[in-house]
């Protein structure tokens, strides 16, 4: 079985968020499992700076029609492997399993998708080029894949291209496609005029094609044309069939619901392991949970919070956005501080909420520490030192922070939605609430505080949380079952 992963990002080569983590982890786990897997990525400026010397020019030039213009590109390749200690090894090779799509006009930029002033205005052109470049390279190099696994809107046109412009190409005659929705809130929506750059005419601007409220929608086309659609948790797969969570595409998804599968994301237990984490002050595991307290002591000292070691310390790590529930956190904090809770924030996001968090810190300097930014080492220290993590998302396709928190014995307080409800067991490994409101969040934090005061009960919750297995190996097995079922007479496996 030969698999191609096609994505706009994959860690450690490029990353802006969870998409990069997930695709990078899938690539790694497939390699470790002995699967013949290749990943296709844009050759961004940051990728060039970090990995140029580890790649080689494959020696081919290809042309891609982007509207009425033909754009020419190159490809750089490398061979990726992992040693016995799980360390990444990259070797420049024309027989590679890592393909970087090179086009300086499109990808040699400061950021992946846009700047603080907004998305790049030619993102439609950039990812039309990328999607078609992948298929052109396969055609020129006669690369044959059983499965092409596309990720999010950036690559959602690939299934349609395979059924139209490339349907006569012999290298794709047995290829099946999988499209994963990482977050339905991002769909690749562009003005109607952008349809021309896809290579299709106005005959494709209709309700079962590109048309979406007078605009062009790339993800919608992918949902209609992929052989299988996956998303990143079983509950989210059900939620997006409803108007509340479907972001305007619930009707399309209901048409394809027999081909929709939810598979929980995982986390990399080599990176997120409190027993060996190099960033934390004191390593610990299920056999010596009490050592976790030394990380809390360090965190209180580092942040200058005037919080007794006996009082609860709650953290938030993530994007400071409306989706992540930061608005109800802001509303709930004054009342929770009165009950003796202290808070640590780390993250960036919408300027309004960044300023709100700074304002709260100014109002409660002894009870709130806010780091507006992202520091990897600090994040590890917070996961290890906090008593709980807030994840009150308005919606959450899967979520990774709650998985990390449980691994570190930091029971999360989460809203019962998407992957949060699939991974957190209320009162067993964390705490869940239903209504999206500051009042419901406050009540859930009170439930956490009640458990926290009962040391025996809280120790059991920590232990149960740390025991749960959310490693990528489990998720990858489910993807492989899905692939095998799809190859085998088009069935979807035994998920």
Automatic annotation (TrEMBL):
Protein source organism: Thermodesulfovibrio autotrophicus
Starch synthase catalytic domain sequence ranges: 2-255
Its job: Synthesizes alpha-1,4-glucan chains using ADP-glucose.
Classification via Pfam families: Glyco_transf_5, Glycos_transf_1
Organismal lineage: Bacteria, Pseudomonadati, Nitrospirota, Thermodesulfovibrionia, Thermodesulfovibrionales
Chain segments annotated as transmembrane: none
Family, per entry: Belongs to the glycosyltransferase 1 family. Bacterial/plant glycogen synthase subfamily.
The name this protein goes by in its record: Glycogen synthase
Main enzyme class: transferase
Domain Glycosyl transferase family: 311-461
Catalytic function, reaction form: [(1->4)-alpha-D-glucosyl](n) + ADP-alpha-D-glucose = [(1->4)-alpha-D-glucosyl](n+1) + ADP + H(+)
Keywords: Glycogen biosynthesis, Glycosyltransferase, Transferase
GO terms for biological process, alphabetical: glycogen biosynthetic process
Binding locations of ADP-alpha-D-glucose: 15
EC number of the protein: 2.4.1.21
């Amino acid at each position: 079985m030969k698999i191609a992963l096609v994505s706009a990002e994959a860690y450690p080569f490029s990353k802006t968020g969870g998409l990069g983590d997930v695709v990078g982890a899938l690539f790694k786990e497939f390699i470790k499992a002995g699967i013949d897997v290749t990943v296709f990525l844009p050759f961004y400026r940051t990728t060039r700076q970090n990995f140029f010397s580890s790649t080689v020019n494959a020696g081919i030039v290809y042309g891609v029609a982007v509207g009425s213009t033909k754009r020419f590109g190159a490809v750089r390749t490398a061979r990726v492997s992992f040693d016995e200690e799980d360390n990444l090894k990259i070797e420049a090779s024309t027989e590679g399993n890592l393909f970087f799509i090179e086009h300086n006009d499109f990808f040699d930029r400061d950021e992946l998708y846009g700047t603080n002033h907004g998305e790049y205005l030619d993102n439609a052109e950039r990812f039309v080029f990328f999607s078609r470049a992948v298929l052109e390279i396969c055609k020129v190099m006669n690369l044959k894949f059983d499965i092409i696994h596309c990720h999010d809107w950036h690559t959602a046109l690939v299934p349609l291209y395979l059924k139209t412009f490339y349907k006569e190409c012999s290298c794709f005659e047995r290829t099946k496609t999988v499209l994963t929705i990482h977050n339905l809130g991002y769909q690749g929506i562009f003005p109607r005029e952008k349809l021309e750059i896809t290579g299709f005419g106005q005959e494709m601007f209709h309700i079962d094609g590109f048309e979406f409220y007078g605009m062009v929608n790339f993800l919608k086309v992918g949902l209609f044309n992929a052989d299988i659609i996956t998303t990143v948790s079983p509950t989210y797969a059900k939620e997006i069939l409803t108007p509340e969570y479907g972001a305007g595409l619930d009707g399309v998804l209901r048409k394809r619901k027999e081909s929709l599968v939810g598979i929980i994301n995982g986390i990399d237990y080599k990176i997120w392991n409190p027993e060996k984490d190099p960033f934390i002050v004191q390593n610990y595991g299920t056999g010596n949970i009490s050592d976790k307290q030394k990380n809390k002591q360090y965190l209180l000292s580092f942040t200058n919070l005037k919080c007794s070691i006996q009082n609860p310390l709650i953290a938030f790590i993530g994007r400071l956005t409306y989706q992540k529930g930061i608005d109800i956190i802001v509303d709930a904090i004054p009342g929770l501080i009165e009950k003796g809770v202290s808070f640590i924030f780390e993250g960036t996001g919408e300027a309004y909420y960044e300023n709100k968090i700074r304002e709260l810190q100014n109002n409660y300097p002894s009870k709130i520490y806010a780091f507006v930014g992202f520091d990897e080492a600090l994040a590890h220290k917070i996961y290890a030192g906090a008593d709980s993590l807030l994840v009150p998302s308005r919606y959450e396709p899967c979520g990774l922070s709650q998985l990390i928190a449980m691994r570190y014995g930091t029971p999360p307080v989460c809203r019962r939605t998407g992957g949060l409800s699939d991974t957190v067991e209320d009162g067993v490994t964390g705490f869940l609430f239903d209504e999206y409101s500051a009042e419901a969040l406050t009540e859930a934090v009170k439930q956490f505080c009640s458990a926290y005061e009962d040391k025996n009960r809280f120790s059991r919750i920590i232990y149960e949380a740390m025991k749960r297995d959310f490693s990528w190996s489990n998720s990858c097995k489910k993807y492989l079952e899905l692939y095998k079922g799809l190859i085998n007479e088009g069935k979807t496996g035994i998920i």
